[in-house]
Specification:
Length: 212
């Protein structure tokens, strides 16, 4: 009788609506956060990006990022990057040179802290818990890849409870953790049509390395 009771309890907690609700809650938190980011339109983000090898910090950079759908501009540590949806320009101020290429979607996705918005609905198991980050109450959503061949293995997204703004995104890819801490966020930013393109006229005597 005791064995039957234990088997019944195992199935109850494994397959009951309470277990399913946990994953549904995580999905709901991400849905709300993604929807609010999309409605914010053009966004400006102040951030700190850090790359880890195991628990060891390999490098980090602070900067500012502007995002408009697939377009992006970044300023960090003396390097400015423009991406207009096809072409990328990387300008290095110290050498007054710009490198031009046409990166893959995967390369650009790795630069975008909000990439999780486009991947979380398929291929991941997820849970959510409430915790505290930088003194603020957050939902910590954890995503784990269902399939070994997926590029992104694990993701943590810390989302502020008061307004569903992501404060930190951690991604495990190629055995390295990447962490992006969002230090400032501004939505509905007014940007010129050519904001995401390099303007050669503004950089006299610039050395151009066109690798397309």
């Amino acid at each position: 009788m005791r064995r039957i009771t234990l088997v019944f309890l195992f199935h109850l907690f494994t397959f009951s609506p309470f277990h399913l609700l946990f994953a549904q809650d995580a999905m709901k938190v991400l849905d709300i956060a993604a929807d609010r980011i999309r409605k914010a339109g053009n966004v400006k983000i102040e951030y700190k990006a850090t790359l880890f090898s195991g628990a060891t910090e390999k490098l980090s950079a602070t900067g500012t990022m502007w995002i408009q759908e697939s377009k992006m501009k970044l300023e960090a540590d003396g390097v400015t990057t423009w991406y207009d949806g096809q072409t990328r320009w990387c300008y290095v101020a110290s050498s007054n040179e710009v490198n031009i290429d046409e990166p893959s979607r995967k390369e650009m996705a790795a630069m975008n802290p909000y990439t999780f918005m486009g991947i979380y609905k398929k291929g991941f198991k997820m849970t959510v818990k409430e915790t505290v980050l930088r003194g603020e109450s957050v939902y910590e959503v954890y995503l784990k890849a269902k399939y070994p061949k997926m590029d992104v293995k694990e993701v943590y997204v810390d989302i502020r409870k008061s307004d569903y703004q992501p404060l930190c995104i951690r991604v495990l890819e190629d055995n390295n953790w990447q962490r992006v801490s969002v230090l400032g966020f501004q939505g509905n930013v007014q940007l010129a049509n050519d904001f995401f393109s390099f303007k050669e006229s503004e950089y006299p005597n610039v050395l151009i390395n066109d690798m397309r």
